[in-house]
């Protein structure tokens, strides 16, 4: 089977099943996983599929605007964006820390770097070193539960004094946003 035929078969399976693991595709097509990775590379470039942890899924929107969030797909004009740089040097733009934390959780093993903006100073910081404020009374009308990133605990605490909320480190914030999304609150992303 030629690569183009395997790609067509992959898209057909994804339309029927939603998502597939690389190992499952390899077994079905009776080719190596390396061959599958070569086959999916053009599909990723064309935004036909999205790589997930251990597999692939169809892209919800094939023509995501270059300034759009790769998690919730809304136009990203936020002043607090997040960028994820994968091990294969692909850069994903996310509209806010909420989407950044969720996307990080989805592709954690493929992430080389995750960077965000300090909410007060608008400077670029490593998200893994940031402090995240949840449940503040300061509403940015973005994705919920809202998370604000700060470069230092002191800055986060000063903002917390005026607007309330709870301060979490990166790993805690990843777990918290995932836990809340699995609960009754649901995602309030403007899709």
Automatic annotation (TrEMBL):
UniProt-recorded name of the protein: Transcriptional regulator
Keywords: Transcription, Transcription regulation
GO molecular function terms listed in the Swiss-Prot or TrEMBL record: DNA-binding transcription factor activity
UniProt-listed InterPro entries: DeoR_HTH, N2O_reductase_NosL, WH-like_DNA-bd_sf, WH_DNA-bd_sf
SMART domains from the UniProt entry: HTH_DEOR (SM00420)
The keyword Nucleotide-binding is assigned to this record: no
Gene that this polypeptide is encoded by: ycnK
Protein source organism: Neobacillus massiliamazoniensis
Pfam families: HTH_DeoR, NosL
Limits of the HTH deoR-type domain: 3-58
């Amino acid at each position: 089977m030629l690569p183009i035929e395997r790609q067509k078969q992959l898209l057909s399976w994804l339309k029927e099943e939603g998502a597939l693991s690389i190992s499952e595709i390899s077994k079905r097509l009776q080719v190596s996983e390396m061959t599958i990775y070569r086959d999916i590379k053009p599909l990723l470039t064309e935004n036909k599929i999205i790589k997930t942890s251990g597999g692939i899924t169809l892209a919800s929107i094939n023509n995501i605007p270059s300034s759009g969030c790769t998690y919730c797909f809304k136009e990203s004009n936020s002043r607090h964006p997040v960028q994820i740089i994968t091990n294969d040097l692909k850069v994903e733009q996310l509209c806010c820390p909420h989407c950044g934390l969720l996307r990080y959780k989805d592709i954690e093993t493929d992430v080389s770097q995750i960077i965000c903006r300090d909410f007060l100073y608008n400077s670029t910081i490593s998200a893994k070193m940031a402090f995240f404020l949840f449940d503040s009374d300061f509403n940015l009308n973005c994705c919920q539960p809202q998370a604000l990133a700060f470069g230092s605990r002191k800055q986060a605490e000063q903002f917390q004094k005026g607007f309330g909320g709870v301060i979490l480190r990166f790993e805690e914030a990843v777990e918290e946003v995932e836990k809340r999304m699995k609960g009754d609150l649901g995602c309030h992303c403007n899709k």
